[in-house]
Amino acid sequence: MGHTGRALTTLESYSANPASQVTLHRPVDYLTQALDSLANPSQVVAQRGKEAGQALGNDPKEAIGETAHRVLTLVDQLPDSLIIGLPIGGIRLIDYLPSRVMELTIHTLDLAAALELRIQPPPPALTVTLRLLADLATETTQGGDVALALAGRQPLPEGFNLLG
């Protein structure tokens, strides 16, 4: 739940910090820079998620609902061209949003798996997620492995992970 909430709250906090110029031009540029800037992505991300989960308090479902409403209202009011100031550079809102959709989709699937539920994300969210992951695979030279695995030609290597 913590990671799901962070997908929203990071958008809220970063949009309050406009940047003067775009240094990250595509959604995948944000992902590759963010992953490269973390010393140990899996440990850092796990710790952030734990802290965010604790911050949700005793009623995480209610907290996430309130956060989602607040952030969606905010996004509706912001121009797509707003340059958001991230710790790793500036990116237009419209180019940052796919990373938030991907996070929400992946972490919702994580929650469903933890609860032993089988869900199918909404097709638009899944499309954004898969496109961004495909772009990341291509940028990190793992695109061939992913393409062959998706085509049923070979399994992915043990422990394969595009996100670190």
SSE blueprint:
Blueprint: H1 2-15, H2 27-37, H3 41-55, H4 60-77, E1 83-86, E2 89-92, H5 93-114, H6 123-139, H7 143-150
Antiparallel strand pairs: 1-2
Question: Would you kindly provide a written description of the structure presented here, covering whatever features stand out?
Answer:
- By secondary structure, the chain is mainly alpha-helical.
- The protein has one domain.
- 64% of the residues lie in helices and 5% in strands.
- The chain contains 7 helices and 2 strands; from the N terminus they run ααααββααα.
- The protein has a two-stranded antiparallel ribbon.
- The protein is globular, with a radius of gyration of 16 Å.
- The two termini are 20 Å apart.
A few lines on this structure:
This protein is mainly alpha-helical and 164 residues long.
Low-confidence stretches: none
Strand pairing plus helix content: what structural class?
mainly alpha
Give the overall shape.
globular
Tally of separate domains: 1
Q: Could you give the order of the helices and strands?
A: HHHHEEHHH
Which band does the percent of strand residues land in? under 5%
- How do the strands line up in the largest sheet? 1-2
Distance between the termini: 20 Å
Mean pLDDT: 89
Largest sheet: 2 strands, antiparallel
Number of strands: 2
